[in-house]
Amino acid sequence: MIELMNIVKKYGSKMALHDVTVSIPKGKVIGLVGENGSGKSTLLKMMAGLVTPNSGSATFDGHPITRRIASQIAYMSDTDDFYTYFTVQQLLDFYATQFEDFDMVKAKEIVQFLNVSLASRIKSLSKGNRGRVKIAVTLAREADYYLLDEPFSGLDPMVRDDISKGLIRFTDQERQTVIMSTHEIREVEPLLDEIIVMRGGRLIAHEAVDEIRDFYGIDATSWMMSLFKDSQVERELGK
Hints:
By secondary structure, the protein is α/β, with parallel strands linked by helices. It has a single domain, classed as Rossmann fold. It has 8 helices and 10 strands. It has helices spanning about 40-50, 90-100, 105-115, 125-140, 155-170, 185-190, 210-215, 220-235, and strands at about 1-10, 15-25, 30-35, 55-60, 65, 75, 145-150, 175-180, 195-200, 200-210. Strands 6-7-8-3-9-10 form a 6-stranded mixed sheet, with helices on both faces. Strands 2-1-4-5 form a 4-stranded antiparallel sheet, covered by helices on one side. Strand 4 (about 55-60) and strand 5 (about 65) form a beta hairpin. Helix 3 (about 105-115) packs antiparallel against helix 4 and helix 4 (about 125-140) runs parallel beside helix 5 (about 155-170). The radius of gyration is 18 Å and the shape is globular.
């Protein structure tokens, strides 16, 4: 389990995370939503051991999270951090040298499922196919957690649909957890077990999708929109 307790993270004078406490169990698909600048990317990087808190604690199965956690947690950035002169096959070979849990057979199966040629050079791929490759090399790892930062950003509906199907097919939903930050909440809602909502560096809600539907009688997207509206009203009244 990933546990963050009373996390505060600042970049200079800017408060990125303010007193964030959250527990992420195994075996869930979780949507991380919020406005731009709400702290979503920083929260994922904190879980991945890429940034350290100014105060509070971040642990994985009771042990402090450091950069070494990369051996058990697969993090996918929202940017393309690939060597563009690699072919897709060369990229898979490179990942296999970096991560002991990288499964080459699974990687090729995902690439084939997503209709990307192993012989293609990264620099020649469309944005959609680079998105497919990013998800392939991430899911090819047999990690406990997959942390995906905006996996659908800027991609057309067909690519988003392919990636969604890949998330279902190539993860073990009994023992692996997927946490994805996204603005495409309506499209991914059918995949989600839980939703975490961020605003202004604070965690303002963490709910099970089924409980949202049962208790509020609305879908998770409508609930989230009403939550933001209520939060805005509170902010206005607090001025």
